[in-house]
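From the shared-data thread, chain only:
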Amino acid sequence: MIWNIAKRLGVTLAAGLMLAVGLIAVAPCVLPVEQCFAVGQNASEGSTGAQAGSTQASGSQAGQAGQSAQSGQAGANATSQQAQPQQAQGQASDDQMPVTGINATTIPDLNAYGMSFDDTQVTFSGEAVGTIIDADASHKWVSLAEGGSSIAVYVTNEQASRIQHLGAYGETGDQVSVTGTFSLDCGAHQGDVDVHAISLDVIASGGARVEELNTNTFTIGVVLLIAGIAAGVVYWRMRERAR
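Structure, as tokens:
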């Protein structure tokens, strides 16, 4: 009797485990809602590579900006003007990057070096994602994303109307270029981190995106589901024979 109970328990556990694992493997492949969580900020795939690239770019920008800032110092003699830019290349700190004028930058850099860009004019680009939200009677909020980072942009109603596609599951958002004033602690918007757009241009149109099915995961899930159902049938027949 103990042996029969042990066999039934073993078959039941095996069937339940295989069914559970099979469902977990198959569900994300056939239910779009499950994949929406992975789209989150709806950043494009390969964000790790993009972040690495932007890190290298920010290092190069730091060196160049440091050279420009030091070469313009009043009262510096010709010798110091040649030596100081070379020293600046290796001295930009991790949390501050000297900037001047209108700065071509990236969204990851704005989030990483916010103090350096505070109250300066910047130009950058990113994918329009999420939802366009009313800010006031004549302005809206648009979220732009790049390399796993995003930022809120305060735009006019007319500028917002140029954006036709917003990144979401199965949809690639328009690529948008923005020039505006970056604020780390915006006084007009309760201390938000934002950019007040001066100009906005759609540089690439988005559209429908076909999500690729992970055939390996789907196949494994189907096999486990079949095995779980078979184990359940075996358990049922064992119970019938025992009666």
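Residues 31-99 have pLDDT under 50 and may be disordered.
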